[in-house]
User: Which sequence fits this backbone?
């Protein structure tokens, strides 16, 4: 046999224009499905300036666009915007993580994130959006698209699948408004690899196809500002095996998420950012190290060396925030010394 056999379908990933990429100097906002959460968590853990899903997990393109509209003109939610169901107050615009037993607590969580994220949006250089499904649930009473149905009965909603023109029209308007706010902002879209099998296997494929076609049209319209990362294709082709799924056989396993993250990092983080991320990860591993004897001189020296690494890294990267790590090291080093 000539050459080596290849037992997977490699996916070519579009690189950032002009070999640029996401850097630690830039602000990032991520909105969308669970996949946005997975990538966002890794960026945040790596100390990037990242705001992740300030409305909670959002699945459809309408709710994601409405969230961005609200962030551009932040107006506080009030008690009239909430509803009560099964002992909790909920918002139709938010994930259930914001729900609480009192309207005061719910509104506090919602509005605190609203204003912080609105401020972040005004500095955002990279907007990462992950669409999960083209299906939306409209409240029969008002016609409003629910970002989350909060397990209310199906009879309260009208279910419909958005069309490609509907999505592109909504997002052309959304992007135009964002670029008036931040003209240089790049929008990086992806389609979630998580299958929505409650829609049905065939309907899920139709839904993903609509999302892919809509993103393609946005790319064709704005080729320099709208970009695409093939998370869906990586899962469907490179990781085409049930060992890469979680127990529900719908969500990617932790191994799959980590692989897709690594492909994202190698293509969409700039060279300096990848180098800095490696050093940040090394520092975090040091903080998680549990010695046999915490009082030993060798361990204290290890901690002092880690502090020195942080100092050198922050001197080289003044936009990097490792204050919590420094505080943690000081607490360990000087505990009981006073």
Assistant:
């Amino acid at each position: 046999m000539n050459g080596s056999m290849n037992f997977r379908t490699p996916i070519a990933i579009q690189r950032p224009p002009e070999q640029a990429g996401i850097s630690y100097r830039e602000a990032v906002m991520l909105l969308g499905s669970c996949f946005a959460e997975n990538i966002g968590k890794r960026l945040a853990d790596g100390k990037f300036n990242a705001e992740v899903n300030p409305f909670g997990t959002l699945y459809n393109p309408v709710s994601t666009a409405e969230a961005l509209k609200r962030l551009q003109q932040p107006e506080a939610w009030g008690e009239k915007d909430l509803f009560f169901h099964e002992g909790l107050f909920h918002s139709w615009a938010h994930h259930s993580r914001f729900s609480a037993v009192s309207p005061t607590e719910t509104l506090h969580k919602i509005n605190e994130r609203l204003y912080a994220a609105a401020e972040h949006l005004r500095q955002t250089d990279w907007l990462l959006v992950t669409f999960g499904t083209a299906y939306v649930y409209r409240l029969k009473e008002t016609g409003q698209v629910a970002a989350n149905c909060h397990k209310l009965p199906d009879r309260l909603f009208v279910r419909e699948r958005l069309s490609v023109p509907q999505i592109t029209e909504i997002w052309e308007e959304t992007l135009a408004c964002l670029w008036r706010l931040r003209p240089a902002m790049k929008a990086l879209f992806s389609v979630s690899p998580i299958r929505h099998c409650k829609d049905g296997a065939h309907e899920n494929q139709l839904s993903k196809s609509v999302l892919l076609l809509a993103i393609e049209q946005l790319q064709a319209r704005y080729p320099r500002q709208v970009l695409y990362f093939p998370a869906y294709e990586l899962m469907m082709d490179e990781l085409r095996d049930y060992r890469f799924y979680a127990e529900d056989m719908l969500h990617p396993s932790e191994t799959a998420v980590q692989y897709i993250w690594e492909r994202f990092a190698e293509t969409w983080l700039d060279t300096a950012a990848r180098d800095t991320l490696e050093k940040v990860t090394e520092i975090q591993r040091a903080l998680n190290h549990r010695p046999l004897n915490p009082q030993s001189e060798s361990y204290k020296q290890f901690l002092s060396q880690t502090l020195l690494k942080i100092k050198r890294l922050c001197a080289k990267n003044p936009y990097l925030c490792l204050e919590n790590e420094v505080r943690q090291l000081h607490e360990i080093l000087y505990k009981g010394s006073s």
Observations:
- The chain has a mean pLDDT of 91.
